[in-house]
TrEMBL record:
Family according to the record: Belongs to the class I-like SAM-binding methyltransferase superfamily. MenG/UbiE family.
Included stretch of the parent chain: 74 to 363 of 364
Cellular component terms per the entry's GO annotation: extrinsic component of mitochondrial inner membrane
Enzyme class label: transferase
Pathway in which this enzyme or protein is active: Cofactor biosynthesis; ubiquinone biosynthesis
Protein name: 2-methoxy-6-polyprenyl-1,4-benzoquinol methylase, mitochondrial
Species in which this protein is naturally found: Cyclotella cryptica
GO molecular function: 2-methoxy-6-polyprenyl-1,4-benzoquinol methyltransferase activity
Amino acid sequence: THFGFTSVSINEKERKVRQVFENVADNYDVMNDFMSGGLHRYWKDELLKMTGVGPMAKVVRRRASLNYAANSDLKSGDGMNGKAAVLFSILDVAGGTGDIAFRFVDAAKCEERSKSSGSDEISVTVCDINPEMLRVGESRARKRFGSAILDETCALKFVEGNAQYLPFDDNSFDLYTIAFGLRNVTDVDMALRDAYRVLKPGGRFLCLEFSHVTNLPLAKLYDLYSFNVIPQLGQMVANDRDSYQYLVESIRKFCTQEELVSRMETAGFEGVQFTNMTGGIVAVHEGWKP
Ligand code: SAM
């Protein structure tokens, strides 16, 4: 039947995506630099700027220290009312090896504060369907920030889960990010609805994803690069042509900037808009849960 066929192809996609990211987990970060000529760092930095997390962390800290001044029983660095309060919680879905989450931790200087106070005003949760990617991410986090941030303060967490059925309560997060993840999800609309569910009212959704190039000469060059060069590079560097062929195809099949806007609106988001970067090679979509 038609339904039988659909469900087989969905499972097929899930299996394929899992296989791809298991294959690439160990090389993932090197290959990202290699394939994008380092551009992915710039795109991720821009995403971070849009979240405002760096400047916001300062405001939160200032509020906490004003609170401290008003109540001399509190130790410096304690959260509001002397409790280790998390004032801003971030969920990074399809967070893989932690690139986006680490930018939040750096911007908010979570690890410095956790050393001095044992409390954190910002918490970052990385959620990914693939345990291999999470394993690489956790070990990078330990090297980069030390283990306390994972084991003691829990300002940074790695959680296995599917974007379509997130293992979190309704209204849990202030910010939801997903970078180069949405196109890998089998049912994009379901992932958007679940993003909406876990965000608090007033929470913000930000998606960084490959999109559709808007400028014709650039589109031609980009086609040439992605169909000819990328699978070849995948073969040469990682001995894995198929995974990188999948990467290119999944980018082509993914919806346009405008389609994603309307799908986000259907999921309930308000104030939906997008910003193209590098001529539309990638775009950031944002929306708010009212
Ligand atoms: N966000 C990271 C970054 O920008 O470097 C990783 C992006 S990587 C291209 C895509 C990630 O999506 C992989 O780690 C993969 O395991 C994850 N993924 C694929 N399908 C998923 C799903 N249904 N739910 C959660 N994560 C998923």
